Amino acid sequence: MLCLGLSGGLDKVYENRFQIANTFMHDGAAVLVRDGQVIAAVEEERLNRIKHSNKLPISSVQYCLSAAGVQLSEIDHVAYYATETYCNAMLENMLASEPNASIPLDAKFLVQQLLAQEFGSELDPSRISFVSHHQAHAVSAFAMSGFEQSLIFAIDGSGDFQSGLVAVGSGAEISQLATFPENNSLGLFYLEVIRYLGYGLFDEYKVMGLAPYGDPVPYRELFEQFYELSANGEYRVHLDRIGPTLLRTIQVRQKGMPFTQQHKDVSASLQEALERIVFHILRHHREATGMTRLCLAGGVAHNCSMNGKLLYSGLFEDIFVQPASHDAGCALGAALIVSGELGRPAPRARLQEVYWGPDLASDHAVEEELKAWAGHLEFERTEAVADRAAEWMAGGAVIGWVQGRSEFGPRALGNRSILADPRPATNKDRINAMVKKREGYRPFAPSVLEEDAREFFDLPGSACEFPFMNFVVRVRDSKRGLLGAITHVDGTARLQTVSRKASPAYWDVINAFKQRTGIPILLNTSFNNNAEPIVDSVADSIATFLTTGLDGLVVGPFLVKKRATTLEDWTALAVSLPPYVSLYKVRAHTALDRQETVCEIRTDHSSRDGVRISHDLFDLLTRIEGEAVLADLLDTITLDQAQREALTGELRRLWEQRRVRMRPSQAARVDQN
């Protein structure tokens, strides 16, 4: 029995027809389960390279079908991650705002039509289902927890006119106890506050990292005006009070401005308020149900600091957090819901790993990809890849590490990671400067051999398995000075324990590092720069390696270094525009307050996303039909050497921002072979 779960939007990658509020249709994914067991899963962003993609997960579906060796017509059931009523209401709202839009108002017919267009086979409508958004969150957690019984708490921003639920799971059944309306959304509560800290949607985790630098006391009473706690675990948030109050009280931070202590204190107060509300809800339902175990899902469940507080509280004997708690995880929940309805529920077993994405393919294919970049890369194959990588890191190198199938969810768990020595505190600044280009206050996570975790981290009870970076835990006092690169300002770390059985290649490289240094830990952060999702393919990893300051790259059994390059090496590359990019000429004010025509490249149809480019580069890019070798493009216009260098440099900066694509031309690939 094959069941396919979907999340995300309804536009193709180059379209913007269905501009439904991005607070709902985002984090597109496809998950394929056979008889209740996951056989393939990937987020669309990993494949179309659009962060938090709100597009139809076409590439994700293609991958899942390919992994199973089937056609769409062979799928027994397809499930979408929201109710049909909600989807139809969203379509009606869109039509009301755009009366001339050609949009069918039947969501099931629309999904059927879109899948038929892409995959050439029309599914019978009876094989397409729509499931409750928060029920999908709940099932995605409980079905993977291994618990026979537990309390389930699903909380996010919004979906299906709600923002969360509390339920009890028992066997294969989930019984709902309470739901939370959108106007009581804890996700929107958090989001509304961080707007005044210079952040927006998908930035919530950044504020979680900022909170330990602040003191919640100065704004505690202020924040108590924003919510009320009442009997039976009930609460109310006053979203309408937040903006007017903060505007009167704090200096609003604009994006890019420095953080003041005031901003840090507001972050601490926000985090404290969220935790206080969550504990209020859970204490009541823990007492009312007698449940000693807890499952968490929904976007708010990615708040690892909150999860850590729950872990240490002793309120529950065991807590399972769905590693893909955000909306991509609803694709998993949707698939499991319909699989269960068809008599194939998920086996009752604790989730051990989520390496469900595309594989690296054969070593030969990897080698051919590396050869194509001969002007930019040098590489060697080794059977001792873990030892050599550990040797690099022990010597101070920061490396990209790419092995096996990619992870499902937002965390790099050792198959698509940037790795480094966890000891020097300066490694935080190095990695931020060379790769991430992100705020310096944000912490990096440690990956530790499971058997050594307790020596370095103060773990509550008998728990020793934390494979998904879902909990912030305490670094032991005696180890904080030693682990300067992964210990946060409050003495904590977002921990991943690594099992030799679940992740043998990653365990091997950490163990090899331990043999050289005595430290069974590596700094682990996602392999991407600040403009892109986590890398998935070999091509992705090469692009990120060449556009960052990483010291080395390990892909499968290959050790990769950069070569010194010339202008000719760069102009030999082929250039193309991603399908989500558009070029514009617009009238704008210059620094001298004059109006003139400027050129922009945008990754959507919003002028807020535009990056200005030179008129010469605009002209060059408009000449591309599909893909073109840069040297050939430059030859179409009269340029001296300095101008060729300047345009090539400008193009490379756009590549770093993932607004253009650069890769070896087909001719170069043939020559290398």
What's this, in brief?
The protein is an alpha+beta fold. The chain has 4 domains: 125 residues, Nucleotidyltransferase, domain 5, CATH 3.30.420.40; 177 residues, Nucleotidyltransferase, domain 5; 205 residues, Alpha-Beta Complex (DHBP synthase); 98 residues, Outer Surface Protein A, domain 3, CATH 3.90.930.
Instruction: Look at the structure and give the CATH class of the largest domain.
Output: Alpha Beta
- Strand proportion, as a percent range, falls in 15-25%
Number of domains: 4
**What integer value in Å does the Rg equal?**
25 Å
Count, helices: 24
Please tell me what the overall shape is: globular
So, the CATH homologous superfamily of the largest domain?
Carbamoyltransferase, C-terminal domain
How many strands in all?
Answer: 28
Keywords: Transferase
Family: Belongs to the NodU/CmcH family.
Protein name: PROBABLE TRANSFERASE, NODULATION PROTEIN NOLO
InterPro entries: ATPase_NBD, Carbam_trans_C, Carbam_trans_C_sf, Carbtransf_dom, NodU/CmcH_Carbamoyltrnsfr
